[in-house]
UniProtKB/TrEMBL annotation:
This is Histidine phosphatase. One of its GO terms (molecular function) is protein histidine phosphatase activity. InterPro entries: His_Pase_superF_clade-1, His_PPase_superfam, SixA. NCBIfam families: sixA. SMART domains: PGAM. One of its GO terms (cellular component) is cytoplasm. It comes from the Bacteria. It holds the Pfam family His_Phos_1. CDD domains: HP_PGM_like. It comes from Pseudoalteromonas porphyrae.
Length: 158
């Protein structure tokens, strides 16, 4: 069994014309750091897939301060308007190609994070607070996932 962790970026600056360039706020940085500590304590992710948008990259940087990744990739298939089927297929391909990674973290945005959970575990579409992480168990042999839980910065202890 593998673990898939799907994370929404931390709190970002308000919407603007260039959505991809929005930065994390100070609160967003704190959320990302707290969740990085929590991820290290609970799941120790070793595979990382992150959106190219600035706020997702900044979130991943905070998480990386506390976690050691064996594989990392920036992926345009997990931006807000991306196709969740393509994203799920790509993630499953990466999992198969990198057996050394037992726990995978995907750092992206609403609504793709909710749609991706539903794509991997049909009928489960959680709403993500900023910085929240959904936890799924992934059976590689059956290519089936089970949605387990969601955790937000406000309800985790580190």
């Amino acid at each position: 069994m593998k673990t898939i962790l799907i994370m929404r970026h931390g709190e970002a600056t308000p919407m603007q014309a260039d959505d991809a360039s929005r930065n994390l706020t100070l609160i967003g940085q704190q959320q990302a750091e707290k969740m990085g500590l929590w991820l290290h304590a609970t799941h120790e992710p070793t595979g990382l897939l992150v959106s190219p948008y600035i706020r997702a990259q900044q979130t991943a940087l905070e998480v990386k301060k506390h976690n050691r990744f064996l594989f990392e990739e920036t992926c345009g298939d997990i931006v807000p308007e991306a196709n969740p089927q393509v994203a799920a297929d790509y993630l499953e391909t990466l999992i198969a190609m990198h057996p050394e990674c037992d726990s995978w973290l995907v750092v992206a945005h609403m609504p793709i994070v909710s749609y991706l959970v539903d794509q991997l575990s049909i009928g489960n579409m959680p709403i993500f607070n900023t910085g929240a992480v959904a936890v799924l168990s992934y059976d590689e042999s059956r290519q089936k996932s089970e949605y387990l839980s969601i955790h937000a910065p406000s309800n985790v202890d580190v």
